[in-house]
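Thread: "does anyone have the structure for this chain?"

Original post by V.I.:
We have the sequence but no experimental structure in hand. Need at least a predicted one for the grant figures.
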Amino acid sequence: LSSSVSLAAPSNDECLECHAADGPSPLEHVDAFADSAHGVFACTDCHTDATEVPHAEELKSVALDTCGECH
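Reply from O.Q.:
Generated one for you, tokens below.
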């Protein structure tokens, strides 16, 4: 028997199930993020330790070297 296990990072839609303005753990600036230059990225492009849903209670801060890849 084989089982299929997804190794894909959570999608933005999965993140927004909790973090949308009306979700149980809302973010204040979801719309501003989506409309910004960063809106083309997946949440997990920067939040690399969010590997599953639900994720750990506290995620690591986004490292400056992650930003430095583009900036």
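V.I.: this helps a lot. The helical segments are 12-19, 30-35, 43-46, 64-68.
O.Q.: and Residues 1-5 have pLDDT under 50 and may be disordered.
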